[in-house]
Amino acid sequence: GGDVAVSWLLDLFGQYRRSKESAQASLDAAYSSADVAKLTYIQDLVNSYINLRFFQERLALSRANLKSRQETYELTQFQLEAGA
C-alpha cells in the first residue's frame, strides 16, 4: 500500500504543478491582452493626434490660399476700376 500512497502523492504534486503552470499561462495571456489593448489605445491616440495636426495644417494652408486669392481679386478689381 505504501507504493500507491507515494505515487498518489507524486501525482498530486504533478497536478499541483500543472495547475500552477496553467494559472501562470492564463495570467501571462491576460497581461499580454492588456499590453495589446494599451498599445492599440496609444496607437489610436497617436494616429488621431497626427490626423488632427495634418488637418490643422491643411486648414491653415487653405486659409492662406483663400486670403491670397482674395487679395489678387481685390487688386484686379482696383485695376479695372482705375482703368475704367
Question: Can you tag this structure with a few keywords?
Answer:
single chain, 1 helix, rod-shaped
Characterise this structure.
This protein has one helix and no strands. The protein has 84 residues and is mainly alpha-helical.
Largest sheet: none
Number of E strands: 0
Coarse structural class: mainly alpha
Q: What is the residue-averaged pLDDT?
A: 87
The percent range for helix content is: over 70%
Please compute the radius of gyration using only Cα atoms.
Answer: 36 Å
Count of helical regions:
1
Element-level helix/strand string: H
* Assembly classification: single chain
Distance between the termini: 123 Å
Strand content is under 5%
Overall spatial form: rod-shaped
Are there runs of 5+ residues with pLDDT below 50, and where?
none
Give a topology summary:
Layout: H1 2-83
In short:
This protein is mainly α. 98% of the residues lie in helices and 0% in strands.
